[in-house]
Amino acid sequence: MGPLIKVFGRTGTRNLRIHIDASVADAYNEQGWRLPHPRSDTEVALHSFLTTFPTPSLDRGPDIFSWSTEGQSHPVFSSSRTWEVLRPRAPTQATAKHIWFSGATPKHAFHLWVTNLNRLPTRCRLASWGLQIQTDCCICSTQQETRDHLMLSCPYAGVLWTEINRRIRDPVPPFSNWSHLIQWASSSTSLTPSVLRMMVVQALTYTIWQQRNNMLHNQTLLPPLVAFKGINRHIIDSIYTARKRRKFSSLMALWLI
Ligand SMILES: [Zn+2]
Questions:
Q1: 69 C-alpha vs ligand 1 centroid, how far in Å?
Q2: Hey, what's the torsion of the CAs at 180, 184, 186, 191, to 10 degrees?
Q3: pLDDT average, residue stretch 92-115
Q4: Which of 29, 51, 197, 220 has the highest local Cβ count within 10 Å?
Q5: pLDDT digits (tens, 9 = 90+) for 122-177
């Protein structure tokens, strides 16, 4: 029935004549449960519930306690089981398995996850929260700084995408919006598997945001071709590190021309 104070409320201690600090032993003696005659349906339910298990007896050994989650008792406390019960849940997103692929660079995958949710603090988002700031792109200063501009249509991103297009066997389509990009990165062909596409998109978005911050805070910017060398190096290193995984075994040949 759960804690009796929740079942019977604050008046329960008076109605049942059980002190708030009472132990089970205090509510029982050799004649049986020390309860008044039931005067409500809930009290009747308690009385009948008490008949469903043996009465307390010292002969059966000392009391024990256990941690219970979702109807299952465990002898020790488990923080993971407790977190599973307590944590807020949302429906699993279809892109999750593509973004969090096995062998991904964790900081890149996390960054793409945040970017995909459109949670990057771009100037347009900051302005939408009421900050009195310029909203033009930190890198090119010609258009509004939104996620889609930074990652898809900014000239800086354009150079990176051109270089990526040179390396990927299937032509990369011009992306009209963010969901188009994610749709492309989540799909596979034998020449450009999804893992390679996602690895490229993760390294690219991470690098662009890093350079955007570099420009904002330090007024310096790596030339895009130098930034691409970093992306290229990272992809080669990632494929090499994960080369024993089934999905990575053929990627080096597909990436290196
Ligand atoms: Zn721009």
A1: 51
A2: 180
A3: 94
A4: 197
A5: 999 999 999 999 999 999 999 999 999 999 999 999 999 999 999 998 889 999 99
**What percent of the chain is predicted at pLDDT more than 90?**
72
| Confidence (pTM) | 0.70
Q: Give me 22's structure tokens.
A: 């009472």
The secondary structure of 98-123 as a DSSP string is HHT-TT--HHHHHHHHHHHTT-S--H
| Residue 157 CA, ligand 1 centroid: distance in Å | 8
Bridge partners (DSSP) listed for residue 136 = 144
Structural domain spans, the chain: 4-86, 96-255
What is the CA(176)–ligand 1 centre distance, in A? 16
**Residues 19, 13 contacting (CB under 8 angstroms):** yes
Strands 32-33, 67-69: pairing kind: unpaired
| Ligand 1: centre distance to CA 233 (Å) | 24
The string of pLDDT tens digits covering residues 193-210 is 999 999 999 999 999 999
Q: Report the candidate in 51, 40, 32, 45 with the shortest Cα–Cα distance to residue 11.
A: 40
* Ligand 1 centroid from CA 64, angstroms: 65
Tokens of residue 120, six digits? 């990057």
